[in-house]
């Protein structure tokens, strides 16, 4: 009897292990089935050249950007400039652009479902509608004029990314033979908007200003004097010109390094670190499953001079363009914003939408009261510093940045902000590597894209 009981216990344990293993497998099958079936070795979905041979990629207006031709090969939009401008969101036939839809959303394009798998009696593959407007990418690509960098525009209420450009790029219909070390294609397979980390320069002063507004009660009653340089500890913090006497409004508009370095040391490293984390600049977002790079702001252990430079976006500061865009959207939206998304919808060959996408909100990145103050100050930047005439029919709030990167290179140019127009709830970011002046170079790119978006020109 004892032996029978032992055997029964062993059988029960084996049965429990089998049930548990089956449950784990079913869960993983439900959760990962689409990714499993879209593995590039699956010859039901990929041709002999390794190209995804099902599904169409379209922009938000229904322009077909990539499809499968009669011989089972990938085909592309007719205009070569549009093809280059949308490379990092559509992808390439060889799968080298990991952020492209042909790789990142292959499961959605495949038509996979739990009932019939990759085979569907309704037809082969799905139509995947992206949130981007290919024309805006086209405008952004031309405005970048061959410079490396990133451009992003999104609706901070819905999360829909209307423009996502990363340069350098190439024509996926005629891919070049890229040799290692070729400066023309340096980082071409990287989506700089999602995965790039760049020195932020003065756009980061918005975070320092946010901390000062909430921590220094006399901030708006004070005046500052800039002589062109300020000794902070063992560092000399310099400005391009002597700004003279200013209040905090003028210090922000004129982007005075000395004032913000002084404020940083009054605030301290812990406060700056906390506000940077709260702004979402050290975290990572999931953009339709694509993870953005997390920024790096090592404030701990800095000397007073180093902390001063860090507070104006220099030193070891590194920021992701997408994260900055979301922070701008949060300021515009009272402290929180929608998380960006790239997939608008998918449709079967019969027009049924098998997948639905819902916007998600960030945590609170800035208090609502501070967001209102920041927005008004950023609007003043435009009217008094950047030229509102460049942005017709727009209630624009913005901050520029000119980030020194050393090595004999020209600065990285930044321009980021948002619109307060009720019918245009858009936040944006432009980063141009070796672009020089943020307000000019990056500002001109932003003006071109926003004019196309708002005014259709």
Automatic annotation (TrEMBL):
Gene Ontology CC annotations of this record: plasma membrane
Segments forming domain Penicillin-binding protein transpeptidase: 149-453
Gene3D superfamilies named in the record: DD-peptidase/beta-lactamase superfamily (3.40.710.10), Penicillin-binding protein 2a (Domain 2) (3.90.1310.10)
An annotated Gene Ontology molecular function: peptidoglycan L,D-transpeptidase activity
Pfam families per the UniProt record, alphabetical: Transpeptidase (PF00905)
GO annotation, biological process: cell wall organization
Protein name, entry field: Penicillin-binding protein
Species this chain originates from: Candidatus Intestinimonas pullistercoris
